[in-house]
Amino acid sequence: MKTSRVNLEIVLKEINFILDTISPLSETVFENDPLIQRATVLSLIIIGEETGKVNKAIKEKYFNLPWETMSGMRNKMVHNYDGIDTAIVWKTMNDDIPVLKKEIENILFNEDELLDK
Predict the structure, then answer these.
(1) CA dist., res. 19 & res. 115, Å (int)
(2) Looking at the annotation, which residues are catalytic?
(3) pTM score, two decimals?
């Protein structure tokens, strides 16, 4: 079984992929390239999946993070067979992911004991 440390390291890897690879692109490029959209959605799905596996102690201590929202977004993306609103994906990528990165890095740096449960 993976620890919360491993889960959050995977989250950070996906965040860095989005910020390093996708975020520098223009919204026009993003909106017109299905491959870039799919790569971003996959990263967001992985983030939602892995944050859902983080232990309860971390979630309670960092209650300000939108744990349920991340899992919920993952579920909507996985089960939305009619399509995904790319405007929401773009907004999430630009507004929420940079903030999430700082929070995840903070947890990974400060919570050795809680992360290894």
Answers:
(1) 24
(2) 74, 79
(3) 0.92
Q: Where are the domains of the chain?
A: 4-112
Cβ density class 21-40: b for 16+ within 10 Å, e for less: ebeeeeeeebeeeeebbeeb
Which residue type, as a one-letter code, is found at position 22?
Answer: I
Residue 40 contacts residue 93 (beta carbons within 8 Å): yes
pLDDT tens for 21-70 read 999 999 999 999 999 999 999 999 999 999 999 999 999 999 999 998 89
**Contact predicate 104/11, CB 8 Å:** yes
Residue located via tokens 């630009």 = 94
Half-sphere exposure of 80 (CA within 13 A, CB side): 12
Residue at 109: amino acid letter: F
CB 116 within 8 Å of CB 3: yes
Q: How far is CA 112 from CA 5, 46, 57, 71, 116, in A?
A: 8, 23, 12, 24, 6
